[in-house]
Structure formats: C-alpha cells, structure tokens
Amino acid sequence: MRTVLNFNEKWSFAKNVSEAQSVLDPQWETVNLPHTWNAEDGMDGGNDYFRGTCCYVKAFAKADLPAGEEYYLELLGANSSADVYLNGKHLAHHDGGYSTWRVNLTAEIGEDNILSVLVDNAPNDRVYPQMADFTFYGGLYRNVNLIAVNKTHFDLDYYGGPGIAVTPVMNGADCNVDVAVYVTDLAEGDQIRYTLTDADGKTVGEWGGNDPKASFVLPNAHLWNGRKDPYLYTASAVILRGEEEIDAVCTRFGCRSFEIDPERGFILNGEEYPLRGVSRHQDRWGVGNALLPEHHEEDMDLIMEVGSTTIRLAHYQHDQYFYDLCDEKGLVLWAEIPYISNHMPTGRENTISQMKELITQNYNHPSIVVWGLSNEITMSGAKDPDLLENHHILNDLVHEMDRTRLTTMACVSMCDINEEYVQIPDVVSYNHYFGWYGGNTDMNGPWFDDFHAKFPNKPIGVSEYGCEALNWHTSDPRQGDYTEEYQAYYHEELIKQLYTRPYLWATHVWNMFDFGADARAEGGENGQNHKGLVTMDRKYKKDSFYAYKAWLSDDPFVHLCGKRYVDRVEDVTKVTVYSNLPEVELFVNGESIGKQTSDNHFFYFQVKNVGESTLKAVAGDCTDQSTLRKVDQPNPDYVLKEVGAVLNWFDITQPEGRFSLNDTLEDIMATFRGKLWFTKLAAKMMKGLGNKEGAGGFNMQSEGIRKMMGGFTVLRLTTLVGAMNIKFTKEELLKMNRQLNRIKKPKKK
Q1: Which of 305, 376, 522, 525 is catalytic?
Q2: Is 376 a catalytic residue?
Q3: I need a labelling partner for 613 at 20 to 30 A (CA). Which of 266, 557, 607, 731 fits?
Q4: What are the structural domains of the chain?
C-alpha cells in the first residue's frame, strides 16, 4: 500500500543561489516548510521584493523511508518555476507556482541522498502571472511529501491528479455516478474494488473487476445543497492482487445539479440560489503565502460569518485543503488559472498546462461550478488574434476535460461589451470600480442593465468591485480618501444595486482580505491592496464586513459603525448601525434617542455630540457599544498621510469658487477653460505613454473611459497614472494647481 511521508522538516535554504547543491552547507539557514522568502519584503512597498532563484536542500537516507518499489516527490506549491535534483542529477522542471506536481525519484535514490529544489520567481515571458496587482511570493510555500508505492499503483504522473475522477449526474431524484481510475502497470489478474460510502461511512455501492471505470446509481441521492446541506459521499478504489491490497485512492464527491440562467441567475438543485460573496487571495501579514491549516480555517470561518454563498478563488489555484473546506461548508466556487493582465504570445503552453492541472486536480470538488479562463487579460486591447485564439483553445479544452461545468472569465472594466472576446466563455463577469477608480457608485447597476438588455441570453456577473479603507476617518467621506467611512458608504450603495438584480449570476467583492501588492503606494500603508473587508492580519473586520453580514447572514447581530472614529468636531454627527434584524434602537449614555426600521438593513441616526458619550445599539437580544467624543479640532491621526506621496489632497490651496487638484475632471471639464486645460494635460500623459491611442491599451476617447475618469480628482488621476510610469514632480503638481486656481467654478443654480 502507498505511504505518504511528510517532507516538510529540516531543509537547508539559501537565497539567490542558482545552482543545485549536492552537499549540505552548514552556513545555510535551516527552515521548515511551508516557506516563502518574501514573507516580509513582499508586502512592505517599493516593488523591490526579491525575485530570483533560491535553493532548498534536504538530506535523507533510504533506510528512513517507508517500504516501496517506487518513490515520488510531491510538491503542492513551488512558486513559480522549479527544478528538482537528486544526488546532483536533474530530474524535473515545472512551470506554474500554484499547483501540485510530482517527480519520480526511484532510479536515482541511493542509501544516502541529497535532494535539491531550485525555485525561481524571477520575471520571464512564458510563465503566468507576470503582471498583476499582487505579490508573486517565491518559495516551497505548501507541503512537500514523499510517496512510496508499489510498481503497480494509481497514477501519480498525470498533471498532479489524484488518480480517480468521479462524475455524478442527477437523473430526477437519483444520481448516476461514474468513477474512473488511472492505473500504472496493472498486472494480469489484478482486480479493482470500487466502493461508495455515505457521510456516515455506510456502503451504498460496491463493484469489483479489472475495468478502470465503474458506474453506480444512488437512488434518492442526498444532495450537496450549498450552505443549507453540504452533504458529501466518498468514492474509493483499491487494487487487489489476490487478497493483498496493492494501492488505494479515495475522494469525496457531492450529488448536485446546477444551471446558470441569464434571467434567474444561479440555480442549485432546481432552486434559485443567489451567489453573493467574496474573492480571496491566499496570503496574510507576516506569513505571505506560506499558510498553515489554521490559517485556511480562520479564513473560512470569517467567510462563513459574513454569510457568503460563493467565493472566487483568485487569481490562481488555491490549496487543496481550502477546496476541501469549501466542499464541507457548502461554498460555491469559481476556480481559475493566473492568465492575467498581460497576454504573452510565448505563454500559451503555460496557460494550457496550468488549466490541465487545475481541472485534473480539482475535478472531484462539488463546490466548483465554473472554470475561469482569464482575468483582465485585455489590458492592452481585446482584438489581438493570438489572445483570441488562446481563449478559444482554453475554452474548448475545458469543455473537453469537463462536460459538467461551465467556463467564465473576468473582463476588465474598459473592455467593450461588443468585443468577440466577451462572448467566448459560457458565462461572463466584469470587474467594475465605478465610485472608486472614477465614475460614481450609481453607475454600477445601470451598466449591468445595459449589458443585460443588449445580450439577454448571456449570463452576466460581477467578478470584482470594491474600494480601499485603512484606519482613516471622516464625517464627510469622499471617493479616494481611503477612509473606513467611504468604504462603508460605497458597499452600502453597491449592495443595494447588485443584490436587487436577480439576473446577476454571481457577485464577488474584491476582496475578502487585504493582501500583499508590493508595488502599491496608496492609502498611507505601502505594499498592500486595502480593499479587503478584513485586514491582512485578520484581526479587524471593517465596517463594510458587517454591511454584507446584514444582508447575507441569518445569525442575528447588530453592529455600531465607526468604533475607530471616536473624536469628532461636529455638534450633531451621523451614526450608522447595521443589523439583519428589522428594528434597531440607539441609546446615548443610557437614554434612548429612538427606534428605526429599515428594509435594507442599514440604520442611520443623528446624534448630538457633547462631551464623551457611550452609544449602545439594541436589536432584539443583540447589543453593540461604541464611544463618541466631542473635540474642537480634527484628530490628525484620522487624516491620511500618503507614504512616499508627492502631495496629499489636504496640502493643496483651494480658493473659494475656484478649481484645484482636489476637484473632479467631470466638474473641471464642464467649463470651457477647464476643458482646454485638461486637453493639454491629456496630451502630456499620452506623450509619456508613447501611445496615441490609449493608456495601456485603453481607448481614452471611449465613453466608458471618459465616464470613469470623470469621477477622478486631478490629484488622484496623477497618482494612479504613476503605475504607467507617468510621473509628476511636486513642482509640476503645484503649477497645475495654480493653473486650476485661476479657473472659476460655475455658479450653482
């Protein structure tokens, strides 16, 4: 029988080593896996985290290994390319940092052995991802195992798969279950015994023979029914040689049907089941991507608490342990490969191999309903013939490998809905940030209505939407201020628009957790994307977390917003409360100031701000408390100070009745002089890009771009275009501000 030996302990590690080692160096660091060399520099800003080749070395003796005729090294994640050497001989190379792969060590194992793994996360032009808004942590960041097996065994070579594939298809109340196994060197006379068991371990189907396929019928099958009832069966297969068990594999599966309807959205087991949830990146503060089981479990607990019914596992294959948790908890998944942002003509082979690995390794998970082809891949345009062909190849490949699921992809906001590219997958979603990256929050719902009206038979969803928030606070939240209050306002507005449109097949908040993006320099804490509903260390749930909990969770609760916003200057201040209960009463220093009901779970109270007050919100049996304090001057600790910024919005002169860098392009361009001024600025930006057509492939003349940019303040626009290497000095910005100060604002009617 196969034996799996964990190989995580006592590796020697050295950074920036490009040659495999065949001896242990006592000067090298000793590490245990999972491990990444970017746990600190991958999230501290500056876009200077180490990207290169590092070496892991482990000594082992054959005498310490379990008995076996063949030995495989199993690597569950080595980012992003890796080479395996045993006793100085190169055995394998792998491109793709997020999937399982295995190496047969048998021929080179001696009595005493030195195993070397070179791992490389350096930039190249063939392995995805290469351009994206997250850190590409390097390392052996998931488990490494050694597997001992008989020469006859269930396959360990084909794209890292489990050697068993289960296809359950509902037929009325019954479920037809096809089981296929993949066997290496099956000997004459060997038999395969198949067994199906229910969640209690009771046998519900059994068959034996030498056929690598078996079919069963489960009458009145117990359904895998999302969060309501995530029931799981188990399929197992054993190779028998006489009475001896040679090898065994098993997998859990679920019996369920689903469809995605362009009018009714997602339908699970014949009933409408709205997919409303979040996206997830796998890293966290101080750990990077080298997660332990307890980290995955904490993430799952938080996602369950907020009430999500779905997760988009972005932008790559996640740990098998997390897929297992999703099966157990009933979360419906979007799983995808990291074909993202920048199409590389030399990367086609890698998109195909990563897709084959994703599907082969995850085929049995009932939680997965769609395979994602790409994310925002048309950043440089959607008409590239090679890009289109690559997507058609992937789409056909998915349908060939899995006839039970659908394909999807996440389109960048500026991609025109009439592009051929948009029609390739079965269903499609868009990443929109109206209200954060320009535009206004009220543009989101109508945009999807327009798409739905033009393509009524194409299911449309929301793959990303969100805005950033740190520990900054204001009573006058504005787009781009990075305050917790604006994030809460933004999500209130988006919830009301998106959750009342049942035709949206799925909506995924970007993001559940803040995550590492070392190139970012926004919000006053560089190196992270702060769009999470929860901080990167998982210690603080932002107010917006509770806005979603109010709509999605059935567990009664009440939440007072603004707990970190204590000091306020106004005499009367707005206090927001979220609850999934119908009525909330607010007490100030023990005295009720009234009750409110709400049909959207958001409650707003006007509270007199005098001295220091204790606030208490009551909804049913639930309570929550916070503190309010009257101050004469704004607390400077609440005001954003950008780290490394040239200017901050509050440093800019703003004469009464005149424009400044803090005004939006929409308002400025509503005047004749303002339009002339912006024409000159746009010309400078286009010259800096060296592209007369657009920025990063975006058509600067398109209506969608103009609407989105209209919501930007000039200062915010100059900050964002810095990512395209269009830099403005402090002197240039101050000169621009003086020019704007000379332009009068229109008189309000």
Answers
A1: 376
A2: yes
A3: 557
A4: 3-149 (2.60.120.260), 164-253 (2.60.40.10), 260-555 (3.20.20.80), 567-636 (2.60.40.10), 646-741 (no CATH)
